[in-house]
Automatic annotation (TrEMBL), chain A:
Topological category with respect to the lipid bilayer: Multi-pass membrane protein
Pfam families, per the entry: MBOAT
Compartments (UniProt record): Cell membrane
Residues passing through the membrane, by range: 5-22, 28-48, 100-122, 248-267, 344-365, 371-388, 408-426, 464-483, 504-522
One annotated GO molecular function: acyltransferase activity
Protein keywords: Acyltransferase, Cell membrane, Membrane, Transferase, Transmembrane, Transmembrane helix
Source organism: Roseburia porci
Family of the protein in this entry: Belongs to the membrane-bound acyltransferase family.
Protein name as it appears in the record: MBOAT family protein
Automatic annotation (TrEMBL), chain B:
Taxonomic lineage from the root: Bacteria, Bacillati, Bacillota, Clostridia, Lachnospirales
Name of this protein: SGNH/GDSL hydrolase family protein
Alphabetized SUPFAM superfamilies for the sequence: SGNH hydrolase (SSF52266)
Highest taxon of the lineage: Bacteria
Length: 534, 369
């Protein structure tokens, strides 16, 4: 049951009807049932992995919570008799127990994810390494299959156990309710990765049927379908053709494929998230924003605050901040200060934490060296920018560059996009070496005259009309993004304020644009959502 | 107050859904593009008065190019209709016959055997399957045909034709043509030509054309046998299977004997006109528009011959009401005047396509004059 399919639309419609007809206090049960039915339908027996994650995390969180409660009770009971040291010692022991429980849950669940996702990758590295010493062999093929959405629900659930450990949230007592938090069906496949305190209470709350909210959600679904079906599914054909054999294409077409990928990836992923968030909205649940016009970013750091926001927040909250303020990193800063100065001592530990964070983001994307390179590229560039910021500032001041000026902002935007685009080469290339070759040829094998030989792209199955649709679709996205960026408002809200006939006209145009220009039907073979594979 | 608002909303939702459904059906119909002649033939068939046809001709383009129902009416006085779809595979013949039976009780049904002789891939021709199934009304027969003929994973595009047709926006000219045909025929309410279409040109390489090997595969035999059995079961008394003349000689003519044997074993008739060009008076140098189809000159000769053959061998003539006669005369006259234009173009070497829509265009021209 694909996210864009008649079956899924019917499934959502039935779930909505039952949801709003059900007694409000029990609405969450409908969501849980729908989520488990959906996951069973798409993943069959692999639901067991999700259940293991649910049960282990639930029990872990409950145990941590119980220890926390016990600690406060015991400390209260012995308030008079214990000395400060005794109290501290008890608290440390208690904390240590809680930490070990958390680590156990993290190890188990990241272990499952790591084993299923990275076993082959790791085994190949080990085999290659052993080969250097004359031990030749082949990596065992265990025929492991990755359950859909495992990265998303694992990250979301592990965020929860850390939050419970850090006493940011209380452990959920009802395992069925917790199971819903793990499995909420619209988001299970491709996120967004929700924080427990953002999502959980919404899932369990009572929701009245609200016509305007339903309409607003449906509009968001329509917008997502436009991005996915009209642009992304069409554009992917050209990218697949060029990246399947890059040696057959000049640098001009490789660059075109990379640019197309930037558009396709955004349309695909943000389109999918719009559909998910739109469905959530129909159920009265507001899910976290995952994209905020990322290509308008004026620095790579800003880009990562606008692109896949929920993953960025997760790694920031659970990897970057804990690392940056960890004793070792603070000690490193202290050690460096007298030797390399204030700036370096401040930037290096933070940058190293950032580098590790991006390494995790890269590895999260897939078990392949190219994804590692993708993560490292982003981490290293951000590190270098931070390291050389004083130099950059000095040059800017010397040249009297107005950093607030529109021209500077525009150049910064273009420059950031170029940096992002370079990162994408690692994404689309078959391997790391292929990415480097593609990058080299995109610069040194670039000839505008190649555009006359556009026919080489014909095997993709796209014709000039398709490229025109992609261009028109991209312009629509651009205009919508500019309006949103300037006004800070949702287009949907603006539309809702218009007269009914204007609203209907716009909605009909949208629906029929998807129906007519969508890339679907027999022989069209639409691509799966890119982020489904993660 | 709140109740009023809820009522208004429900009305709004219903109105929106209604408008959407209407728009969806209109857009689906407009985007559904077919070969123009076949489209006109199918649409026109459903416009014929019920139980008014003496002969039903079911088959591929040979029937609309090589035979004129209106000429046969003028010469022999029987009514017929060429329910012909370009390149239609034989596995659709049963479905076509069922559609005929729903509206007509012909005394004779004629099938062209071409649809069974082109190999197994021919039976899965998506374009032809869509041309037929997208243009016939919803019925049990249509659903059965889809379920029987179309692989399960593609059936949705026949139940919801926009799924396959939405991409036709790239061929906006053809979309416009088909829409014009549908609108013009709907406005007229009946077909003038009764399933006719041709090109005004003469093929000059008929004599030198390569011999063609035909195939009567196991699948073909199964489909033909199924059709024959259906004819028997549904009580169709007179059925003639015919091979119309072709410019290309058949490399393995014995295959047609196999077809004839199977047809006659069910008590039906078979007529092979493939190579009898001399007997039919057809000149290979002037009477074909391509190696598969006769042009208007060849068509006139074959219609005369074939009409005579049908009258000699079957009791197909019946008494038609004065209204029917007037209707057929009117159609025959209008088609004949189109044929005259057609002959003129052929003589002057102007290559044009003539089919149902040409009759209306021809009238526009004369009205302007």
């Amino acid at each position: 049951m694909e996210l864009i399919s008649v079956q899924f639309a019917l499934f959502v419609a039935i779930a909505l009807i039952v949801y709003y007809l059900f007694p409000k206090k029990k609405q969450w049960i409908v969501l849980l049932a729908a989520s488990y039915i959906y996951y069973l339908l798409i993943c069959n027996k692999y639901i067991i992995y999700m259940m293991v994650t649910t049960v282990s995390t639930y029990l872990g969180a409950r145990a941590i919570d119980a220890l926390r409660i016990k600690q406060s009770e015991v400390v209260k009971a012995h308030k008079q008799e214990w000395s400060r040291e005794e109290r501290k010692s008890y608290k440390n022991k208690n904390l240590s127990k809680r930490r070990w429980i958390m680590i156990g849950v993290l190890l188990l669940n990241f272990g499952i994810l790591g084993f299923l996702k990275y076993f082959h990758f790791t085994a190949e590295i080990v085999v290659n390494f052993l080969g250097l010493f004359g031990f030749h062999g082949t990596a065992p093929d265990l025929g492991l299959l990755l359950p859909l959405g495992i990265s998303f629900y694992t990250f979301q659930t592990m965020g929860y156990i850390i939050d419970v450990y850090q006493e940011k949230v209380e452990a959920e007592h009802n395992i069925a309710k917790f199971a819903l938090f793990v499995s909420f069906f619209p988001q299970i496949i491709q996120g967004p990765i929700a924080m427990y305190d953002d999502l959980a209470h919404q899932l369990y709350e009572e929701h009245d049927f609200e016509y305007d909210r339903l309409k607003s959600g449906a509009l968001l679904v329509l917008w997502g379908m436009f991005k996915k079906m009209v642009i992304a599914d069409r554009a992917v054909k050209m990218i697949q053709l060029v990246t399947a054999d890059t040696t057959a294409f000049s640098g001009t077409f490789i660059l075109m494929a990379a640019l197309m990928y930037a558009l396709q990836l955004y349309a695909d992923f943000s389109g999918g998230i719009d559909i998910v968030r739109g469905i959530g909205e129909m159920f009265g649940i507001t899910m976290a924003e995952n994209f905020r016009r990322p290509y308008f970013s004026k620095s790579l750091t800003e880009y990562w605050h606008r692109w896949h926001i929920t993953l960025g927040n997760w790694v920031r909250n659970y990897v970057f901040y804990p690392l940056s303020i960890s004793k070792k990193f603070l000690d490193m800063g202290k050690w460096m200060k007298p030797r390399f100065g204030k700036h370096i001592s401040k930037v290096v530990p933070t940058s190293l934490a950032s580098l590790l964070t991006f390494l995790i983001i890269g590895i999260w994307h897939g078990a392949n060296s190219k994804y590692v390179a993708f993560g490292l590229w982003n981490g290293v560039v951000i590190m270098l920018i931070e390291l050389f910021r004083p130099v950059n500032d000095r040059i800017g001041d010397a040249l009297h560059i107005n950093r607030e000026g529109k021209f500077y902002q525009f150049i910064a935007m273009v420059w950031t996009f170029i940096l992002v685009l370079i990162g994408y080469y690692f994404d689309i290339a078959e391997s790391f070496s292929s990415a480097i070759d593609m990058l080299y040829r995109s610069v040194f094998d670039l000839h505008l005259s190649d555009l006359h030989a556009f026919d080489v792209l014909a095997p993709s199955g796209l014709d000039h009309w398709d490229y025109l649709v992609i261009l028109a679709g991209a312009i629509v996205i651009l205009i919508v993004s500019i309006i949103q960026e300037r006004s800070g408002r949702k287009i949907r809200d603006m539309l809702m304020e218009k007269k009914l006939r204007v609203q209907w006209a716009c909605i009909f145009v949208g629906i029929f644009a998807v129906i007519i220009f969508g890339f679907y039907g027999p022989g069209m073979d639409p691509a799966e959502f890119v982020y489904m594979q993660f | 107050m709140r109740e009023k608002k809820t009522k208004a909303r429900w009305k709004g939702i219903l109105a929106f859904t209604g408008i959407f459904l209407v728009l969806f059906l209109v857009v689906s119909d407009i985007m559904s593009v077919s070969d123009c002649t076949s489209l006109a033939n199918i649409r026109g068939f459903y416009m014929e008065p019920k139980n008014s046809l003496d002969v039903a001709m079911i088959g591929p383009s040979e029937f609309y190019a090589d035979y004129s129902a209106t000429q046969a009416w003028q010469e022999y006085g029987y009514t017929s209709y060429s329910l012909a779809v370009a390149g239609v595979p034989g596995n659709l013949y049963k479905s076509m016959l069922k559609e005929v039976q729903k509206r007509q009780s012909p005394k004779l049904v004629v099938f062209e055997v071409n649809g069974f002789l082109q190999g197994d891939d021919y039976f899965a021709r998506e374009g032809q399957l869509h041309t037929w199934l997208d243009n016939i009304p919803w019925s049990e027969n249509k659903i059965e045909t889809i379920k029987e003929m179309i692989p399960e994973n593609e059936q949705y595009s026949y139940f919801c034709k926009i799924a396959a047709a939405h991409n036709n926006w790239k061929d906006i000219g053809q979309v416009a043509n088909c829409t014009a045909i549908k609108a013009r025929m709907d406005l007229n309410g009946y077909s003038y030509t009764k399933g006719f279409g041709t090109y005004t040109k003469s093929c000059d390489n008929v004599r030198n054309s390569k011999e063609k090997k035909i195939q009567f595969t196991e699948k073909s035999q199964a489909y033909l046998s199924d059709l024959l059995q259906y004819c028997k079961d549904s009580g169709v008394e007179h059925v003639l299977f015919v091979r119309f003349p072709h410019g290309r000689k058949i490399k393995n003519p014995e295959v047609l004997n196999q077809v004839a044997d199977m047809v006659t074993s069910y008590g039906y008739d078979f007529l092979n006109l493939n190579d009898d060009l001399d007997e039919l008076g057809i000149d290979p140098d002037t009477d074909f528009y391509n190696v598969e189809h006769l042009n208007v000159k060849g068509m006139e000769k074959l219609t005369t011959y074939f009409g005579d053959y049908l009258c000699q061998n079957y009791d197909i003539k019946s008494d038609h009401s004065a209204k029917e006669v007037a209707y057929w005369n009117k159609c025959a006259e209008r088609t004949a005047s189109m044929m005259t234009e057609c002959q003129d173009d052929l003589a002057q070497g102007k290559v044009r396509r003539y089919f149902e829509l040409s009759v209306y265009l021809s009238r526009t021209k004369s009205a302007k004059k």
